[in-house]
Write a structure and sequence with these properties.
The chain has 54 residues and is mostly helical. It has one helix at 13-43.
Length: 54
């Protein structure tokens, strides 16, 4: 009995948590990059005015 090996547990949930964290970081980078681009275009005074939809 003392020589019996206990099998290792292979959990899958840490991989799902890791994938969620990585996806969250990637989405955050894309979102902040898009917001910065919009802000840069908004501050560009030499850009043409948007068309008036009437």
């Amino acid at each position: 009995m003392a020589d019996e090996k206990i099998p290792e547990r292979n959990y899958r949930w840490p991989w799902f948590v890791l994938a969620g964290v990585v996806l969250g970081v990637v989405l955050m980078i894309v979102w902040v990059g898009y917001a910065a681009l919009r802000e840069k275009e908004e501050r560009n005074f030499s850009a043409p005015l948007p068309a008036q939809g009437r």
